[in-house]
Structure formats: C-alpha cells, structure tokens
Amino acid sequence: MTLLEAHDLTKHFPLRRGLFSKALGAVRAVDGVSFTIEPGRTLGVVGESGCGKSTTAKLVLKLEEPTGGEIRFDGQSLQSLDADGIRRYRKSVQAVFQDPYASLSPRMRVGSIIAEPLVTNEKLAKGEAKKRVAHLLERVGLPERAADLFPHEFSGGQRQRIAIARALALSPRLVVLDEPVSALDVSIRAQILNLLVDLQRDLGLAYLFIAHDLAAVAHMSHAIAVMYLGKIVEYGPAKTVAADPKHPYTQALFAAALPAHPDEKRDEIILTGEVPSPINPPAGCHFHPRCPHVMPRCSTEVPPLGVALGREVACHLYGGAP
Amino acid sequence: MTDQPLLELDKLSTHFVTARGTRVVKAVDEVSLTLRAGETLGVVGESGSGKTTLALSIMRLLPTAARIVGGGLRFAGEDLLAKSPSEMRHIRGKRIAMILQDPMASLNPLFTVGDQVAEPVRVHEHTGRRGARERARSLLKAVKIPAPEQRLREYPHQMSGGMRQRIVGAIAMSCEPRVLIADEPTTSLDVTIQAQYLKLLRDLQKEHGLALIFITHNLGIVARMCDSVAVMYAGRVIEAGPVRTIFNAPVHPYTQALIESIPRLGGGPSRLTAIDGQPPDLASLPPGCSFQPRCPRAFDRCREEAPGAITITPGHDARCWLAVK
Amino acid sequence: MSVSTAAPSPAPAVGLPWVSRLAAIRTEGFPTIPIVILLVLVFTAAFAEFIAPHNPEVGSLSQRFKPPAWVAGGSAQHWLGTDHIGRDVLSRLIFGARVSMIVGFTAVIFAGVLGTALGILSGYFGGWVDQVIMRITDTWLALPALTFAIFLAAIVGPSEWNIVIILGAVYWTRYARVIRGEVLSIKERDFVRLAIVAGCSKTKIMRQHVLPNVLNSAIVLATLMLGVVIVTEAALSFLGVGVPPPKPAWGLMLADGKKGLMAGYWWLTVFPGVCIVLMVLSANLLGDWLRVKLDPQLRQL
Hints:
The structure holds 3 protein chains of 3 kinds.
Chain A: E1 4-16, E2 23-37, E3 42-46, H1 53-60, E4 68-73, E5 76-77, H2 83-92, E6 93-96, H3 110-122, H4 126-139, H5 156-168, E7 174-178, H6 186-203, E8 206-211, H7 214-220, E9 223-228, E10 231-237, H8 238-243, H9 248-256, E11 306-308, E12 311-313
Parallel strand pairs in A: 3-8, 3-9, 6-7, 7-8
Antiparallel strand pairs in A: 1-2, 1-4, 4-5, 9-10, 10-12, 11-12
Chain B: E1 7-17, E2 24-35, E3 40-44, H1 51-59, E4 66-75, E5 78-79, H2 85-91, E6 96-99, H3 103-106, H4 113-125, H5 129-142, H6 148-151, H7 161-173, E7 179-183, H8 191-208, E8 211-216, H9 219-225, E9 228-233, E10 236-242, H10 243-248, H11 253-260, H12 300-304, E11 310-313, E12 316-318
Parallel strand pairs in B: 3-8, 3-9, 6-7, 7-8
Antiparallel strand pairs in B: 1-2, 1-4, 4-5, 9-10, 10-12, 11-12
Chain C: H1 17-28, H2 32-46, H3 48-51, H4 89-125, H5 127-142, H6 145-156, H7 160-186, H8 190-197, H9 202-238, H10 250-261, H11 267-294
Helix pairs in contact in C: 2-4, 2-11, 4-5, 4-7, 4-9, 5-7, 6-7, 7-9, 8-9, 9-10, 9-11, 10-11
C-alpha cells in the first residue's frame, strides 16, 4: 500500500500590503501537485528556484498547511488528524535539511540533539536514551564519544550525519531530504549519499529527495517528479525519465546538467530568459515563454498531466489522456 | 597567439600568519601554473584547498593576515610581485579581471547598474560620462541582457541572480582584460541559468581571445569548459594536465576519487566511490603527503616525504609517489 | 602544464603585520583592569562592615568638613575627609558601593529576566502577542527614562526595593527589543524547524532552543545596562528620590557634596564621582569584551 499520497496539493501565500489591507494577489508556490511515495522507495523532486519543491517538503512535514488538496499518509488524511494523530505522524515522518550548520542547535550537545525526539515523544529513561543515541551514532558512522561534543566541533559532513542520526531516532518510515548534500564538499557528498542508500536498504526507509543536482537525484531515486513554477511537468520512473526525458523543460535540465567527462555528449539546449517568479506565472503553460517547441495553444491552455510513453507529462506535444 | 605564456606562476607560496605569529597556515604552497591566451584552466579544489587564496594572490588582493612569501608571478612577461600598489591598480580590472561567486556581494546596492558597469571604463580609460554610458550599454548587450537601456537605470536588487552575474561579467570585461579569473561564478545559480552563463563565458572567450581561469569544486564544469586542469589539495597542486588526460588517466588517488565520486546521469555504479575522512586542517597538516591519511593506496614513503611534482607525460604532472613506484 | 623555467624573483613583504597585531589586541585583550576594579568593588560591598573605618551614617559635628588626609588640616582618622555632618567619606563610599552594587545588579537582573521573557514571547509567537508587547515597548521607550523613573519614584515613594523595581520597570524594554529581533531570526533557522518536526511543543522550543541562543546577547546587554542603571540610580539619589538618607549612596553623596563645592570642599563630590565613573567604565569595558568574545562570527581564524 502507498505510504504517502498527495492529491492536487496547493499552497498559495497571499500577498498583502501592510497589516490590514486586502490581499493583492498570491504566490502560487505549489499549484495542484499530485504524487505518491511507496514504502522503502525514493521519490526524487527536482527543479530550480521558485518551483515549489521546498514548499512541498514543508507541506509533507506539516510545517505549513495546504490551501487546497490533501495529503494522505497510510490512507489517512493529514487534515483530519487530532493532536494525538499529529504526534504519531511526526514519529513517522522526519527530515534532514540542507545547511549542516543551521540544522543543529549550537548550544546543545550532540547526544541531547539526537535524543531530543526520543525524549519528547517517548519519555525514555536517561540510560535508555543514551543507549539509543550510541546505537544511532554507530549507524551513521560516528564514534560514541561524539555524543558529548558540541556541533561546532564537527565538520559539515559529520554534522549532516548527526542530523541523519536524529532523523532516524524515532524509526520513521519516511524521511524528507531537502538538498541534503548541496552544502557539502564534493568528496563528502558521495559518503553521505552512500550512507543514505545503505540506510534505506537496511531500514526500509522511504525518501522524499529534493535537490537541484539532477545526477544525484537520478542516482538515488526510484521515481522522479520534475517541478516548474508550482506544477509537476514530468513524473515517472527514474530510469524512464532520466534516460529519455520528454518535457522540454526536463530535456533542458538534463542538457544543462554538467557532464562527468569531457567527451560526454550533451544536446545543447540553452533556454532563453529567466526562471520566472511564482507571483505572476505566464498564462497557459507556465513554461511556454522559454520553450523551444512552443505552439500557439501553449499560451492559452494549461496542459494537463497526462500519461504518455511510460510516464506522465504536462505538455501539449504529447496529447496523452489524463 | 604567441607561444609565450600569458600568466606564469612559479612555486608561488602564500602564507597566513595568525596575529600572535604562532601559527602559519600555508594556504598556497609552491604552486606552479602556466596559462596561454585563449586557454581555459580549471582550478579544482574543495573548501580549504587554497584555490580562492590562489586567485587573490594572482590579483595581489590578499587580506592583511596573508603574504606571498615565495615564488614568481609573471603576467605577459612582467613581474607582478615587483609592482607597486599603484601599478597593480592599473593592472587590476583592466588587464586581469576577476568575478566572484556571490553577485549580490560584488555589486553595490546603492548605485545603479549603469554606474557600476561604467566605473572601470571611467577609472582606467578616463572616458567621460556620456562615452562611458554608451560603453556600458554595449557591454550589457554583449552579455545578452535584454533591454539594456532600461537596465542601466536599475539597481542590483531589482534583478535576478543570473542577470546580476552577467552584470558582474560585463564589469569584468569592460576594459577588455587579457585574463579573467572566475571564482565559482555559477555556484549560486540555477542549473539552466548556469548553462546560459557558461555559454556566455565561452562566447566571450572566443570573441576576445581571453585566457580564463575557472576556479570551482565542480568537475562537471571542468569537463565542459576547460582545456587544462589543476587539482588542488591542502594548498598544493597535486595533479595538473590537459583535461582529457586527467579524466581518462588520473594518477593521483584524490583526483581518481573525485572523478569517481560524482553520480553519473546515464547510469553508473549504484555505490559511489567515497573518500574517507575529512578535508585537512591547514593549520595542522599531517607529515609527508598531505593526502596520505585519506589515501587508500598510501605506503611508507608517503608518510615520510611529501612528493614533488613528478612528470608523467609532458604537460601532465602529479605529486604522488605512485608515479615513480 | 610545465614548470616555468624563469628564475623566481625575491618575494617582497606583502601585507602589513602591525595592522593585524593591533586588531588582535582589541579582540583578544583580556580586560584585567575592569574586572579587577569590579571585583574590588564587589569585595568592598560584601565586606563593608569589616573594611569601613567608621559608621557611615553617624558623624560628629565637631569633625565636619575635614579634608582628605594628605591635605593640610586632614588627619589619618578620615582618609578621604568628612562631609557636612562629620560623617567619614571613605566609609560612606564603601557602604555606598554596597547600595550601588545591590541596586545595580538586582535591577539589571530584574529588567533582564522580564525583558528577555517578553522578547522571546513576542518574537516567537508573533501575531497579536507580538503587536501588543511591541506597542507597549514602544510607548515605554518613548518616555524619557529618567523622568519616568522620577515619576514612578514620586508615586511609590523612595526605598531601596522600590528603586530596584522602578529601574527594572524602566529598562526592561531595551532587552525586549533586542531579544525579539534575535528571536525573529532564530525562529527561521533549520534547527527550530527540525524541533517542530521532532514534535516539540512551543514551550519546549522556546526554553530549549531559543533561550540558550539569545542568552549571549542578554548577558552582554546586561553588562552594558549595568552602567546605565547605576548612573540612573545615582541621578535619582542626587535628585532626592532615590535611596533615602541617611543610607549612603554615591549619587546622594554627590547631591550633598554639591552644596560644599563653592566653599572649596572638593572631596565631597570628586570621590563619589570617581567611584561612579570607575564602576560604569569597568562594566562597559567588560560588556564590550564579552560581546566580542561571545560572538562566534567575530572569533578569529
């Protein structure tokens, strides 16, 4: 059974001038997004600034409430949860964020940081908590004595391991990874990505892996969703999407991804223009002003996400049935 | 293109001394490089490798705690280390230009784009206001900014990151420098904007015969943009050579691991090669080769003696004892 | 990539070492003198009974206006002279230290606790809580502190405890403002978000994550406020609405001594003045050093 489903998820942030005046418009950060996450599998979400991927993460983590649509976890809608239900949900869904320097409270010892979810949710005895912390540190490849140190005594990669250990403390079933390796040195990234893959295999974790690094997403994910200005433009199995992207934006993203070797051929698809702002997205297909294959109907009709060639694409080039 | 290198570094060393004089950090340790007109050199390294200090050393823009303590630095045959501060001022921005990572930090929020783009022209070439404004407009056009006339009157905060970085590029190119040092210029940009920007740099280079030093931690940029590569670790260049040679036959285990640790788009091993351990603390380097604690192939000699630059093939050097084993 | 065959030129000294040394002194200089001064004052205040040669509140009229010992007419009995009632200036200064210290520290702590708590609540909850607290703070701040203090003192009547409460009530706003600003930025940081994700309640987050991270600022602000509070207390005493006589307070001594200035009795004002200056200056220097020491961004390489 699907672990998490999002249906038509929408989040608009109203723009107001001053404190008491009317709303001027809205930032349509997430605009009708639907996806599923299977247990033990990774859904990779990729896109550039303003695409809504971080807001989607916050919605899944219940750090923000959707303005429309719903999220179901284990079949139960998140909106209908009472305080107890929310607590149970938080035990099942945890997060690792991008900045290893901001994720850990600077004035707490590492042991307390990792133990915090346990102490908050499970009322453990001190000795028991210490044992669990030691076990978690071992899982992420850190020595037991790390528990007594402060975050600033560790490097970026090590802090990210601490953040992962804390995320694992409550034995969650889904971990939201929001750009977990972007802020790390290149040689450390591989360490952390390998660790995440190992943990998924050993613990049966599901991941929502958000990143702008296409290659990392393609490497880690079983399914990929490509977002642009609040909408999903392409969605399907990772191998299918990565091997043969169909949406012009996905193609441009893949072409723009840097090669791993000087002789690696890339189609030169250089998009014109800027990544537009989600406050005033273009009419019709949001991508049409930059699309190399734009047609007249693209500026008036919003293409629905329809099935075509083994995945879902939102593009008038492929008139698939929704 | 003459055969004489445009920029030559010969065992250049820059050290940071802490205020009490107790600790010396060898941020740049005997780095030798050559760069010819029209060439793109990639300097690859992670945080703490010394690549930014190297760039600042070439421009002689080091902070007060740092000093160039040894080696040679020649630009178009002239000795840069012997230049007085006012002579360096004439070189900086005019003959050697630099662009940095964060465009918002490079641009003054209080002045219009037009003022800032025109500034180097007015300073170096003593052009009047109107002439400089005209130059600014054509520069903005050259970096493909739409509606340049309007942009001249705008302020940096009114533009997107990609556009700001182009403005920074326009400022750098304004006096037609021979060498452009780009220190991680695309790290803060979105992927598609980065692609645009890299293409712009390539076009500018072709048009002007520019020599480009591209400092980055991203091997993908090196693969796409560079003719030759220098890999830095703990302040030293541990491997250098033409880009294809380095990617096809890297000798130094760090270079090999870097190349293998990058996830590949077209499939690849499910387990990435990771480098154990942490990047080194420049204030307390291990004995012998600075990479040996993390090196999977280190042996006794590595722990005792730091290797010098060993020539593998002409043009390809590596600081690794494996090369002479 | 070939090694250049050009001969290396001698490396000139680039960079100015004396500039960086100066910078180091400023940031690394341990404030020994201010701390010694403050410790001496604390010690004096604590052991006033044992140190003071005379009773500060009782004097003999036959001994009035005696100058300090090293001036003609003075005696070793009264090292720093006597005042208009014949009370020993040195003893009054010593006991006055106690008053200034107690009032100063207590008021600062009271203002600090109140201001920090309100600042945290205001910053973290936002919304109408923030608006209400901030409007009160704004109004409070708009009133000139000294006038306000005098006003309150006139209402509740002068006594040592009242002064503490008044000073606390006047100065909590400075904390609230600063702490609220810090909380606003802390609350957006990832570790707070992750604490929410981990299921922590708002109270727990404020106590465990927000408070420890604003403590630095609160402490630095406290040392800086110490000076302000002591000067205000001195001003209140000077104006007669502070600590009531015959209890010695430095400000009160200034007020009393003012009358004697025209007659040339300079020691009645100079010594209390010097004490006030020393204490305030030391507190400020300590606060300045603490601010640099505790700010991770200013820490050296």
